[in-house]
Design a protein that fits this description.
Elements lengths: L9 H28 L7 H8 L3 H8 L2 H20 L6 H25 L5 H20 L9 H14 L2 H10 L4 H20 L5
Helix pairs in contact: 1-2, 1-4, 2-3, 4-6, 5-8, 5-9, 6-7, 7-9, 8-9
Length: 205
């Protein structure tokens, strides 16, 4: 007869840990999928639980609620965005092409989240992470071009480049003006190159 004090075997503990990790991953993926195609304030824990094949109690126990899920979604989406953009120092055309491909996948969702930010402060953490990453991405692709500028000039140039490559610029071209993907990428590339020329030739200080 087995002793009542017998501890679970290591492989059983490992299997439980793997199952718990898989469940958590399924829940986060379900939430990310909803974020990409639905308004944040329309997403309920019931929907996420149904999509992930778990109970609402499981979602709450693992993440506490939508805010906890949003924190995990930041990690997933940040990794996906970084992989999609693949910033390349000096290759401005290729970098902007990668940016536009990323916006084709994430742009509409980001616009929806930005519009809800004043109503849901939890979104600010997510969006501020994106803002910081985008500025760092711009600094990377333009680093060689802006190398000769003073720190103050460089910051002003980066401000302009962030605007030239912002998701709102993509939305204006793709959604409002209904430009094609190649035309949008070309327009944004011209804006980037014109901005760099403007700041590196002393036309504007």
């Amino acid at each position: 007869m087995k002793s009542a004090t017998t501890k679970p075997r290591p492989y059983r503990q490992g299997a439980r840990a793997e199952a718990a990790e898989s469940t958590g991953r399924s829940i986060v993926e379900a939430f990310v999928d909803r974020i990409m195609r639905q308004w944040y304030d329309e997403i309920t824990l019931d929907l996420i639980a149904r999509d992930a094949g778990v109970t609402v109690q499981t979602v709450v126990r693992r993440f506490g609620g939508k805010e906890g899920l949003l924190g995990e979604a930041v990690k997933v989406l940040s990794a996906q965005i970084e992989d999609a953009r693949r910033a390349s120092t000096g290759d401005l055309t290729a970098s902007v092409d990668g940016l536009v491909r990323d916006y084709e996948r994430t742009g509409d969702a980001i616009i929806r989240l930005l519009s809800l930010e004043p109503r849901h402060k939890a979104l600010s953490t997510f969006l501020n992470t994106g803002r910081g990453y985008h500025r760092a991405w711009v600094a990377t692709i333009a680093s060689e071009s802006l190398a000769a500028l003073t720190p103050a000039e460089r910051e002003r140039a980066l401000d302009a480049l962030v605007i030239a490559t912002d998701v709102y610029t993509w939305q204006l071209l793709r959604r409002d003006m209904k430009r094609s993907i190649p035309a949008t990428a070309a327009a944004m590339t011209r804006l980037v190159k014109a901005t760099i020329h403007e700041y590196t030739t002393g036309v504007q200080r």
